[in-house]
Amino acid sequence: MKTNILEKIAQRDYSGSPDDEYKQNLFSLYMNFVEQGQEEAFLALLERAEKEHKKIAVDPNFEKEMDEVFYDEIPLNKLILI
C-alpha cells in the first residue's frame, strides 16, 4: 500500500494545475515527515484521506500562526482533512 500511495503523489504532470500543486505539496509534506521520523503516521493519514475522498491541508489557524512566526516543520497534528 505504501508504494501505491507514494507513486500517486509522485505522479505529477508539472502543469501547475490544482491537482499538480496538491501532489507537489503532499510530496513536500511527506519529505518533512520522513525527516521528523513520522513517515508511517503521515502515510496513514494519506491513506485515510484517500479512503474518505478528502484532501490533506494545513489547519487554517496554524497557517495564520505561520504568517507571524517562522516554522521550518509542520507538526502532524496541524494537518486536517477537507
Strands, helices and their partners?
Layout: H1 2-10, H2 18-35, H3 39-51, E1 56-58, H4 60-68, E2 79-81
Antiparallel strand pairs: 1-2
Helix pairs in contact: 1-2, 2-3
Biggest sheet strand line-up: 1-2
Major beta sheet summary:
2 strands, antiparallel
- Shape summary: globular
C-alpha termini separation:
22 Å
Fraction of residues in β-strands: 5-15%
Classify the secondary structure makeup into a structural class: mainly alpha
The portion of residues assigned to helices is 55-70%
Q: Work out the helix count.
A: 4
Residue windows where pLDDT falls under 50 for at least 5 positions: none
Number of strands: 2
Number of domains: 1
Q: Topology as H/E string?
A: HHHEHE
As a whole number of angstroms, the C-alpha radius of gyration is 13 Å
Average pLDDT metric: 89
Structure description:
The structure is a single chain. By secondary structure, this protein is mainly alpha-helical. It has one domain (2-81). It is 60% helix and 7% strand. The chain contains 4 helices and 2 strands, in the order αααβαβ. It has helices at 2-10, 18-35, 39-51, 60-68; strands at 56-58, 79-81. A two-stranded antiparallel sheet has the order 1-2. The protein is globular, with a radius of gyration of 13 Å. The two termini are 22 Å apart. The model has no long low-confidence stretch (mean pLDDT 89).
